[in-house]
Structures are given as structure tokens and as C-alpha cells.
Amino acid sequence: MSTGTADAPAECPAPPPPPAGGPRPALPAVHSWDEFTRLREVVVGDATHSRVPPLSDPSAWLNCYPELTPAELRGIGAGLFPRHVIEESNEDLAVLADTLRGLGVTVHQPPAVDHGVEYAGPGWRTTGRSSYCPRDLTLVVGSALIESPSPMRARYFEAFGWRPLFQDYLLRGAHWICAPRPRLDDSLFGTDEDGFPVLGEAEPAFEAANCLRLGRDVFYQVSRSGNELGLRWLESTLGLLGDVRVHPLRGVYEGTHIDSTVCLLRPGLVLLNPERIGPDTVPEPLKGWDVLWCPPMTGGPTAVPHTLSTPWVGMNLLMVDEGTAIVDGDQTELVRLLEGRGITVVPLRLRHSRVLGGGFHCVTLDTVREGGPEDYLG
């Protein structure tokens, strides 16, 4: 059920040819255990209907602009992002999709749901947010699609846009799991001693982008978008899939997702954010790996004064295989760093990655990779 996208602009870089070789072995409908083996099938996001939900909602404050004071928050209007942000983002996503196809990857891009529709739960009311980041709400481990219980009310129905695709995967043999739907009442949300929002422990809540996969190992970042109860639920659920180990990362980054802090490039090689991790705080399972410290990010002015992501979203890259990475072309120092380790870089752009809150890893969801449940840490 792949859907077409707009033609790539003329300046789209020519992708390298797919690796030579004979026919690839058949894989299950869903088969993805890691972040770096050969990518075979992927979902790409759609920026259409992307919007800022009502920010009087504590879950929106927590997940969108947690560094702003209540007074600053009141200066941000809810509603659609500027038209040029949505249109240019969709142009960039079309280039990404076409580039992946040129690399031999099957691409699905289901249309975005209408995030302007208002809906409610007991004690709260909101609109939706965006279909730009399919990585955020679905964790793929092996043959399982796991819908995560986001702590953000505006994301409650976001994954419905991918459900026709997931149902097709189900009919072709995948396992489809949905975490317990959270109530998301006010008891889940609190503030710290400085008055900024925090995620509580009233019920399991986490987003899939709090996780990274490494064969039989999964990393889970405890943060504003993933609590300890969410970790416990994920541990118990992954235990049903076999010998899968979950590694909590605590005190690393109190923001949201993990993939602008830790990027697994290939076995034994990891890219780390030096603002959040130091030589003495490398996660225990990765000690002994070769570490690339991400250089400072390059970035100009943004289309709006307050963005959903920090400049570090520029290190949010997508590995097509262990020797090929799709990287923000503006991050020339990062490109040189990766090329110095023998990684072929395909430089592309996501002009509004900070505004909409996602780089190349965020806006994709790999459903088929060639790797299996290897023990990379043994």
C-alpha cells in the first residue's frame, strides 16, 4: 500500500546505487531489530495538517515547549503551522522518499489524518498535532509493531493514520500490539521546584522515540516523554517476544526523545551528544564502543520564534545500512566526521526540522531491516 509523493526538485542529490549482489532473501512482513543493518522497507511522515495544539493543556506544555514559562507559553497561538512550513516540509519529505526508493528501499507514506478535529477524554479536550514523525509512536521490535502510550493528549489518535498499513502487515504475519490507552488525566502531570512541567507516574506513559534497538537489546530513555511505569510495561511486553533485554537510561536527557542524544551507527560505533553525555557518563552497555562526539550544530533562523526541537535535531540521522547515512546536509562538520569513518553520507534537507520537531530518524519508521536479534553487547 505504498502511496506516491511529489517529484523531487531538481537540486535533489543523486543517491548512490544500491549495493550489487544477487536476490535478497525473503523476510517477514515486519522484521526490524536494529538501527543500522540494510534498510528494506520504511514509513515516511507527512506534514499536512501539522499544528500546535491548545497549550493550556499541561500535556502539551510538557511535550512541546517545556522550557517556556507559563507567561511565555501564552504568547504562542494554537493552530496550523505557517503554510510555507508545511509545504516546504512535504517537499523535503518527498525528496527523502524518492532518495530511499533510489537506494532500493520500499517506501510507504500514508496520508496524514486531520489534526484539526477536536476530541476529548474524561476531564480534557484537545485537537491533534502532526503526522510528521511516525517514529514517535510506534516501536518495531522484530516482527512486532508496538503502539506506545504517549503522554501527550494531542497525540491520542495520531497513529490511526498508519493503521491501514499496520492492518495489512498484520494480515501478512506481523504482530500488532497496543499499549494500554492512558487516561491522561491531570494526575499524570506536575511541575518541578522551578515550576516547569514534569511527567509523573500515575500510569504507564512513553513514546516509542524514547527507545533505540540493538538486536536483542533495547535502550529506553526515562525523560519527559517516558516514565518508569512505561519502562516497566515495555520490559514485561518485550519479555513475551523472547530474550530481549531493556536498558534504562536515567539522568541522561530530561527533554524528550533519545535519537538526538545517542545514534547507533554500526556495531561498535556510536555517535553521542557531548552536551548531554560525557566520557564518564557513556551508558554502561556502550562502554568499550568507539565513540564519535557530535560536533556543534549549524543552524540559521527558524520560521517561528519557539521550536519543538533544539538545534541538536541536526544529528538526528537515518542509517540506510552500516556504511550509508542520510544526514542533514547543513551539518558539514558532522558529514566530514562520518565520512572519516568510512560512512557514505547522502546529504538531504529538512528545512523545518526544528519547527516541527523531527530529523531524518524521527520522520521515518523502519519496518524491515535485514539484521536479526543479534547479541551486539555479548
From TrEMBL:
Residues 1-11 have a biased composition (Low complexity). It comes from the Bacteria. Residues 12-26 have a biased composition (Pro residues). Residues 1-29 are annotated as: Disordered. Signal peptide: none annotated. Keywords: Transferase. PANTHER family: GLYCINE AMIDINOTRANSFERASE, MITOCHONDRIAL. Belongs to the amidinotransferase family. This is Glycine amidinotransferase. It comes from Nocardiopsis tropica.
